[in-house]
Amino acid sequence: MNFGHWITSPQLSRNCVTADPPSPAPLFRRAFECSGFTTGRVRLSGVGYHELYLNGRKVGDRVLDPAVSCYEKRVRFVTFDITEYLHPGTNVVGVILGNGWYNPSTAEVWNFFKAPWRDCVKFTIELEIDGRLVLGADESWKCTSGPILFDALRNGETYDARCEIDGWLGERYDDSGWLSAVRIAGPGGMLDEQKMPPCKVLQTIPMTLHPAGRVYDAGQNLSGWARIAVQGEAGAEVKLEYAERITEDGDLDTNFQDTFIKSGDFQTDRYILKGSGGAESWEPRFTYHGFRYVRVSVTGAAEVRNIEARFVGTAFDSIGKITTSDETINQLQKMTRWSFRSNFVGIPTDCPHREKNGWTGDAAIAADTGLYNFDVGSSYAEWLQLLADCQRRNGQLPGIAPTGGWGFDWGSGPAWDCALFSIPYEIYLHTGDDTAIRQNYPAMKRYLDFCGTMESDGILAFGLGDWASPEECGKSPSPALTSTGYYYMDAKRISSFARLLGEPEEEAKYRDLAERVRAAFNRKFHLGDGLYGDGSGKGELTALGCALYHDLVEPEFRQRTLDRLVALCREGGCRAYFGILGAKYVPRVLAENGHADLACRFFTQREFPGWAHWIDLGLTTLGEHWDGTASRNHIMFGDLGAWFFRYLGGFRHDPERPGCRHLIVAPCPVVESCRAEYRGYVSEWEVKDGTMTIRLTVPPNSSAMLQLPGEERFELGSGIYVRSAKL
Question: Of the residues 130, 161, 194, which one is the last residue of a structural domain?
Fold first, then answer.
């Protein structure tokens, strides 16, 4: 009995991948004796998803375990403390398996159903009591089919309560009619413990019936599923269809989001009653949805007594809060937090409904926002391992991680691939932990080697550009401009990483590369007199923002470039005439150069295109497009959350003293008041009669450099301080 032996049901091992309809989720059970104990532990990896039971109880409150990985390279296992579930005598352990990412049986445009790892669900396990191995994965396990008739990550789950097996987790249950498990090859990757926080049900929200009487409304766009209480006859079916919007007449609107799913129902759960006479409560196990609304249809004699939305995501702690005197900013901050949490269900995703894909560009853009709001460093670190595991031998990266092979030749590029460089750097700044840098440094070098094969005289022309730019902005800059900007940033970053790792030759090598790319960028894209790009059209905001954000402008032209950017912003009324890259470049560049008031107007002005326009459209999370079409729960425009903490709260990290033992606190007083919390620091300030007064709390064993308007600076240790400055 060794950890690493894998077992499955003999029925699944014969025809799982070709079965039509797909096979039901299997149940496994095994009895063992326990004479006495102090502690118990289980290590379990069941792919795609697993649930562990002991003596009739589910162990813990984790859901959607384990997190997806590149199964050919790495397979996550989870360690459970089972001490409280054990008792002397006969104990029974049970495992239920779901398909998840490992065995996608339905077709979608990203071709995960053709992933090279795809196979039947399987698991490996070790159960130890007081350090002694009691059982592992072998043929002594018994298995059968359960009531989950169908489960697919993007489609939903079907549960037939008539197929429930009463008492199957009890010691007196007779499993002689069950099949014996069979040994099977594992997924192929190395077993690696999952240490990041698990997915959990984060919140339960009552749903109310829409006045039109067709759908239920959670009042909030979110990730997760519905829990129902229903009563009726055996065989009656409750159908739950999920969406994030409704039509004008109050019916469900799924037009935009199911075009990527090529077979099976989309975001649809079904519950078939056993007809026990009392109320039956149910929620799915092995799928999740993105939704605000649920349409409930009943076939047969049954009545839904209650329905609740279950908000599901990775259960990392909240470490940051910010509120201001501006209610628009407060609403956008709330929307950003909901979007971030909805798009981190095991991995960082683009949206929780139609895709659930780990888009690298979305993750890179939103990482700083995530790290200000949540203790998300370990979750990012494990996803970065997944991204590196997806890398091709030539260094090329996919646009999504995981990938079944899609996304290498479209959907990637330097602005997306920079996640491999920028997220380790952000983790390092926020936490002081350089592990992600060290782990991914070899992959970074391979990637830059790949870029070397793709560049032409220092210019990279491949990849996506300023994605989701509105038509109203006119011609966007070519992807070559933004791709080369990120090529420069990556070279600078890895040069600093080489210095950190004590590699002086590589530090010099990549510093030289950065300078060569910088010179090439200016030869290609500087039009003279500080202008960049094509020099015309509202899309110029991104070109100027890119040059300034990446510090590519020659010193003698920098002020002219900045002045041109400021003039364009004012001429356009601070409308967001840019896509997701410009949405990060422009507000940050403005704030860093004394124009935080102008940057703030981009967030608070309510005309299209812009963030606040989403509020007027009724969104409760951030959108995918400025006009509110397509997804209404994306995080790719989410850098505004980091902007709030960095420039309103004033919390800035010192690269020479990374982590949170020391912060630079330099708030920009562009609203009347602000209160921001971050890892124990509290920045609370207001402006009154032309004077800014701040009350700053510095946590124990920490320090801060407080910088007020007018360049007055204070070096502060732990404690509470009040300072004022004339504006």
Answer: 194
